[in-house]
Amino acid sequence: MAATLITCAKFKQNQSCDFFVSFSQLTGRQRTVVELNVCSPAPAKLLAAWTSESSEISHFEVTWSPPAEDATRSATATNTSYAIDALTPHTRYAVSVRVEGDTNQTLGFSDNVEAITASPATTVPGPPANVTARATGCRTLWVGWEEPDEPKGVMTGYTVIWTHAATNTADTLQVDGNTTATIVLGLQPCTAYSITVSATNGAGSGLQGGPAIATTESAAPASPANLNVSQVDGRPDAPTVTRTKAAALGYCNITSNTITRWLAAAGHLIGNKTFPATVQVKLTGLQPATTYSMDVSAAVHDTMGPRAGCINGTTGE
């Protein structure tokens, strides 16, 4: 079988996951080179990973024991990595790999690699590094971070805390220790949030990293209501359109209104025009004694809401 290296690269040395590496030339009917890596991602665990290139390999035998003891334990692996569990924390173990062929012959074996299992955490971790946040919608934020520069043990979880900038109310989300990004849901549109993240190891939760500040995206407002068209005295070509202001969501503000006009008799679209976010607009340049159909929609920046519904108005003689 041709195997691919699976390493402990995700674990840093300052997480008590030091690397112990052996390069061994295996001998047999086919010469095979093995690179054996061993690290300790948790106090009672070792992770062994290796490379081996041969078309005749059937499986691998992984053996481990404390060097001071005669007793050994072993397990069969069909892939090029194996997790050894239920070990004693802060203890030195010797690990080796034997390569078995298709007909149960030994193709070779690695040298012993000695590794020390991690010690249980006795001090809380430092703050997570590089906390960042960005909007992914009108009610969601993406939050990312890096593991603490001083983890002082294996990370068992993270707590994401987001605080509403206007009301100063806070909520939290718990994620596991292998996660360094998450999506925060159920937020308010057009709202700024302050984001912090704290890490937890076996000793407890540490200081918060951050803050990162991010604002959710705009949400479409409701439609304006109570649409009305009235005539301006002395200006038959300039009716006034009034309506009740559309309701905006969250902390969004209406930034503009767009009026669309049709010739009522023929149904021909004349066009639309955008005005500031006021509740009364005077239209100009219309034909006297002509009935128009009109509707209004509100927008928050580039996010347009639904139309209010058509209303007819007739210009003066």
TrEMBL record:
Species of the source: Chionoecetes opilio
PROSITE patterns referenced in this protein's UniProt entry, alphabetically: FN3 (PS50853)
Gene field: Lar_3
InterPro entries: ECM_Regulatory_Proteins, FN3_dom, FN3_sf, Ig-like_fold
Keyword Repeat: yes
Keywords of the record: Repeat
Name of the protein this chain belongs to: Tyrosine-protein phosphatase Lar
SUPFAM superfamilies according to UniProt: Fibronectin type III
Domain Fibronectin type-III: 32-120, 127-219
Claim: Ion transport is one of the keywords in the record: no
Coiled-coil ranges from the UniProt annotation: none
